Amino acid sequence: xxxxxxxxxxxxxxxxxxxxxxxxxxxxxxxxxxxxxxxxxxxxxxxxxxxxxxxxxxxxxxxxxxxxxxxxxxxxxxxxxxxxxxxxxxxxxxxxxxxxxxx
Length: 103
Fold this sequence. Notes:
By secondary structure, this protein is an alpha+beta fold.
């Protein structure tokens, strides 16, 4: 498994706000050629330009298999890009795995 590399800016936490729009994460995932990789929460926050909510620490927040009736914009961003997200046991990173295409 490879950790995807991204460039990080020099921003303090004071400049970050909680995000409800995960389009930047979707766009980032759509550009990836790897079928599986891990991003730290810090890397994800850089991608979305905002702090993740505290709920992101729960594995269930990343779970792509939850009820589609529950609005979860981070899940929708991952699925729209063709990836399933799973929080890693370290509680500080997420594995993104490309969904197999149905025929």
